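hi! just following up on the protien thing from before. the input was this:
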Amino acid sequence: MNLFFLLVYFIIITAVIEIYVVLFRLTGLNIKVSRFQVISLMTGTGFTTEESELILGHPIRRKLATFLILFGAFSLAVIISTISNFLSDDLRMQHIFYITGGVVLVFAVLKLACIQTLLSRLFHREMKQHVELGDMPIRDVFLTDKKDYLLNLHIYTDSLLVYKTVNQLFNDHERLEFVLLFIKRGQLKIRGNIYNEKIHEGDQLLLYGNKEIITKLFHHDIKIMEKKLENQHRTAVTGG
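and the predicted 3d structure came back as:
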């Protein structure tokens, strides 16, 4: 009987996983990422990947994840107690079938296209009404198109930008598909009149716009940055 109960309970767990895969997908998350993160949340393992930011940085997904964490902890306790033959004698299989049927029914309803469309609209409306822009991950705010690009450009001595301004290098920068969001100089962030601000060694430029345009215009400086960072990484690894 205990083995049969475990089988039935695993069906419940599988159904809950699939339900939340659908819900996460309706918030805009890739289905493969959704399934991995749902299982990670439920089991408490593997939720340390970079993809976890897609959950943590999204308010609706965080709420969904809260239930999964609690349900996973509860499920682990149930499974352990079942394997240890510690189940209560008055637990009736009829109740288990009711629970199983209910979970499977919820999953079946969520698979309906009309329900998915309704929930997707509801989630997006909830985001527009209650979510602050600062609560959303960068890719949901800036990188909404394949052509969008956000670059944190480090400036070094041999950079073409040193002691020059963006206006000096690109007179028609207003026509180009990129903007300079700010210049970070130590602890200072320069936002005012930044296109006429002389750029110094050690500055960091946060650029946003068309990826092809940015990589073309700042090709030399990007190559320098990549080479410097690669050398720093090698030095750190070799310890000298």
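The mean pLDDT is 77.
The chain has ten helices and four strands.
cheers
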